[in-house]
Write a structure and sequence with these properties.
3 domains; seven-stranded mixed β-sheet; 27 helices; binds iron/sulfur cluster
């Protein structure tokens, strides 16, 4: 925990060169259970070879995400070929050669690469460089199933797809609007900022269909009185319907405008499009907005008062806004409210998407995306002769291509592509149709069992604090942390991700017969050499080669001058989404638990919600009574896509809405994508809940 490495878990970005348990401002001690769980999981022993000999894949496939995580570290390459019932150990040369052969045999357009947010900037840069030099534009990072809607919307609003603010802005704000997020469970140290804001007299406004205990009261370990007595978090807590965010945000804007709370001078000087937004909001009736949002007028008025009483506000959100078929519009509606108050491009204000995995933002900054920024693509052309490639597929499109037999090989750098897809059975079939899949992993997860291709090679990787060379990661505040690396905590044949990628590159793109090669891949095994290339090409990363931590240039705004063509921020009209679900359905959202990180589950119990199993459906007492259920009843939950059995838990959620755990409930999630971000609507699924009957009963 003390090592000079960025926290492996969320993108709040603790640790780094300042040392473990320190945030970007140097505050100490900052630690949370999630980081300890991730660290402990990496410190497990190796899974012995005998285990793979003795345990068929079919048996492993029955294990839960938690049980797979607890098996231990992968310590040598593995392969499973068509007809194999077991994974078996192979040597590195054979494993790498097999990958090289598969990619050389395929057409570039028949391949894709994918990276999770675990990988370093150095590995991510190399991955996309190899992919583009090889010729595939299908370069994915996990954000298409996560925060892609944030990037799309923020680019619309101010020409940059990440947070507009830095950590210090949270210390200057006197209002935080937290919507569609549960940082108490998923980004615990962010709650410290909220507690400090309240201690300075600031207010916290929470919007979430489910009353999350950790957003009502939280114990901050670093603050003694908070640790003993707990700290109040939300001053105002609104519980809209799932999918009611745009209606609610319009209602809040309507209230602000009716009470003359907009910053007219700011809107006139620094924005475009606001008059159309004003007209749209004024045309909407209070009754319609209250009904569509599910929030009563007094609740809306209280929140409007909080907005008007604050001088500097920051708006924070996570997948509660992005995981919808109208995810981009959700964030545009939120941005309109921020613009109305003049809370963008000023100290102590701004928009902050709360990012998940520790380096998901850095992976995107390194060009691991199917569409590159123009300036970055030009650099690749100028520096390496990588010609312009067509726009690559979004992640779900690559899965569709796989299902149709159009993908011949893929390389997955970390993550759990199977586990993060909607319609889990369909995703398994799509991934199983790929002739060759390579996965670079630290531990086993459901992807290695349900998401494997016809031939699958697993390459064991070192964690970032085990790397022999330093790496870098980017936090959600656009701050690049340095990780010093360390020593492997497990015996075995593990390699660093960069070394693996460079070895693969030399096989996928071997030297010509005359010995000449476009790239010196052995030079690019050096992280320092990669950082030199990053500094030359990645926008905002000019300081990458300095070895220092730095703020990415051009991303955060403390004056209202934005990288849009006219330098102004854009307000955009957002229509109210229509929901045509049958009247006997409920709105279901999938969510994570406290002891979970993305698709990784560390413990089945969800302490804050009082739920002790993963096959739970959380619903309001009012709904349970109406449907004839009580807590503990077994029920069958059905969507247009699938069905699963679950056990009823009663929680404080807006009646008509329910929640189940991701990724287990992904069998229920239909592949409905937001048309702009291509992000599936994991948080809005129409379901019917029926009494469970024994089959044939
Ligand atoms: S809040 Fe996030 S970055 Fe901070 S210690 Fe916890 S998991 Fe790590």
């Amino acid at each position: 925990m003390h090592s000079r490495n960025a926290c492996k878990t969320c993108a709040l970005g603790m640790g780094g060169a300042k040392g473990g348990m320190r945030n970007e401002a140097g505050h100490f001690p900052e630690v949370c259970k999630k980081s300890i769980q991730a660290q402990a999981a990496d410190m497990q022993g190796a899974i012995p070879e005998a285990f793979f000999r003795e345990t068929p894949i079919g048996k492993l496939a029955w294990l839960s995400p938690r049980e797979l995580e607890a098996l231990g570290r992968l310590a040598f390459p593995l392969i499973a070929e068509p007809g194999d019932t077991h994974y078996r150990r192979i040597g590195w040369p054979e494993a790498l050669d097999r990958c090289g052969e598969a990619f050389r045999a395929a057409q570039p357009d028949e391949t894709f690469v994918y990276a999770s947010g675990r990988s370093s900037n150095e590995a991510a840069f190399l991955l996309q460089l190899v992919a583009r030099a090889y010729g595939t534009p299908h370069v994915h990072n996990c954000s298409f199933y996560c925060h892609q809607a944030s990037g799309v919307a923020l680019n619309d609003v101010y020409g940059s797809g990440t947070a507009s603010l830095v950590l210090e802005d949270l210390e200057q704000a006197d209002l935080a609007l937290v919507i569609g997020a549960n940082p108490a469970s998923n980004h615990p140290r962010l709650i410290t900022q909220l507690v400090q804001m309240r201690r300075r007299g600031g207010k916290i406004l929470v919007i979430n269909p489910l009353k999350e205990l950790g957003l009502v009261r939280f114990r901050v370990p670093a603050l003694i009185s908070s640790l003993i007595f707990g700290s109040r978090i939300a001053d105002t807590y609104l519980q809209p319907h799932i999918g009611g965010d745009i209606a609610l945000l319009k209602a809040l804007l309507k209230g602000v405008l009716e009470r003359g709370g907009e910053d007219r001078a700011y809107l006139a000087a620094h924005t475009t499009g606001f008059e159309a937004v004003r007209a749209d909001v004024e045309a909407a009736s209070w009754e319609d907005l209250a009904e569509a949002s599910g929030v009563s007028r007094p609740g809306i008025d209280a929140a409007v008062s909080a907005l008007l009483n604050a001088r500097r506000g920051v708006f924070l959100w996570a997948m509660g806004l992005t995981h919808h078929a109208h995810g981009v519009d959700n964030i545009l509606a939120l941005s309109n409210l921020a613009l109305a108050r003049g809370w963008l491009g000023r100290p102590g204000t701004g928009l902050l998407p709360i990012r998940g995995h520790s380096n998901v933002q850095g992976v995107g900054s390194m060009g691991v995306a199917p569409v590159m920024k123009e300036a970055f693509a030009k650099k690749l052309q100028d520096l390496y002769g990588i010609g312009p490639l067509p726009e690559g597929q979004h992640t779900f499109a690559s899965l569709e291509a796989a299902a149709e037999g159009r993908v011949k090989a893929c390389l997955q750098l970390g993550g759990n592509l199977y586990g993060s897809n909607p319609d889990a059975p369909w995703a398994a079939k799509a991934l199983a149709a790929i002739p060759f899949t390579a996965m670079v992993s630290t531990k086993l997860n459901t992807n290695h069992l349900h998401g494997r291709g016809q031939t699958t090679v697993i390459l064991p990787a070192l964690a970032r604090d085990e790397e022999a060379q330093a790496t870098s990661q980017e936090s959600m505040f656009n701050f690049v942390r340095q990780s010093a690396g360390g020593r492997p905590s497990v015996e075995g044949e593990l390699k660093g991700e960069v070394e693996i990628l460079a070895e693969l590159a030399s096989r996928i793109l071997p030297p010509k017969e005359d010995g000449s090669a476009r790239f010196d891949w052995s030079r690019l095994k050096s992280h320092a050499a990669l950082r030199e290339e990053i500094a030359k090409s990645a926008p905002g990363y000019g300081e990458a080669a300095s070895g220092r931590e730095f703020q990415v240039a051009g991303r955060t705004f403390h004056t209202p001058a934005f990288p849009t063509p006219d330098g102004k921020a854009r307000a955009v009209v957002t229509p109210l989404p229509r929901f045509d679900a049958a009247p006997d359905t409920m709105r279901l959202m999938t969510l994570r638990s406290e002891g979970q990180f993305n698709t990784v589950v560390y413990e089945d119990e969800d302490l804050y919600r009082g739920v002790d199993r993963r096959d739970a459906i959380m619903m309001a007492a009012e709904d349970a009574t109406r449907l004839g259920f009580k807590e503990g009843d077994k029920v069958r939950v059905e969507s247009e896509t699938g069905a699963m059995t679950a056990v009823v838990f009663l929680v404080d959620i807006r009646p008509g809405n329910a929640a189940m755990y991701y990724p287990e409930a992904n069998v229920l999630v239909p592949p409905k994508l937001d048309p702009r971000s291509k992000t599936p609507a994991f948080k809005h699924v129409a379901v019917r809940v029926r009494a469970w009957k024994r089959e044939g009963g």
